[in-house]
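Input record, target 12 of the design panel.
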């Protein structure tokens, strides 16, 4: 049997992108920092997002049935920290500039990319909910220079992942 602490230690060595996931609707505007986001399929465009059911924002995502996945760049470490902190939701959203796309969920203006989604299914797995999200809109960066350095999480700390320049050998 694998102990939870051993599993968490092993997972800390899995490099993941850092995202801020947001929602809005009748229940209010909420957001959290997430690393458990991945592509499911491109036909139809679908992502999955995992969220702890004990999170203070969990019920808002379930009730609103929409979300936006905002992929963070290296310059967004403070935003990631804010959305992972005990700050109020209002204080979290004051840390950056936001816009909206099709669903109305908050979209980070200078994210590397943002995926605007409708939550189609929710699966309970252990302590977490897995949201199956149909992507209905995408916001790509206006300035591709912002896409050069991604914020990633590895071994319990942030790192910057940049594009590797192409080498030519004469």
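The sequence produced for target 12 reads:
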């Amino acid at each position: 049997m694998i102990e939870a602490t051993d599993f968490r230690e092993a997972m800390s060595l899995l490099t993941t992108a850092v995202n801020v996931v947001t929602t809005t609707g009748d229940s209010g505007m909420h957001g959290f920092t997430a690393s458990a986001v991945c592509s499911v399929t491109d036909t139809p465009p679908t992502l999955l997002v995992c969220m702890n059911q004990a999170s203070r924002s969990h019920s808002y995502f379930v009730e609103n049935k929409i979300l936006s996945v905002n992929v963070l760049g290296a310059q967004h470490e403070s935003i990631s920290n804010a959305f992972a902190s005990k700050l109020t939701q209002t204080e979290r959203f004051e840390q950056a500039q936001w816009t909206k796309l099709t669903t109305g969920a908050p979209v980070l203006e200078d994210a590397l990319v943002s995926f605007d989604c409708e939550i189609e299914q929710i699966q309970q797995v252990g302590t977490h909910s897995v949201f199956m999200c149909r992507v209905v809109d995408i916001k790509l960066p206006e300035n591709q220079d912002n896409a050069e350095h991604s914020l990633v999480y590895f071994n319990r700390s942030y790192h910057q992942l940049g594009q590797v320049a192409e080498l030519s050998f004469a």
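The chain has a mean pLDDT of 91.
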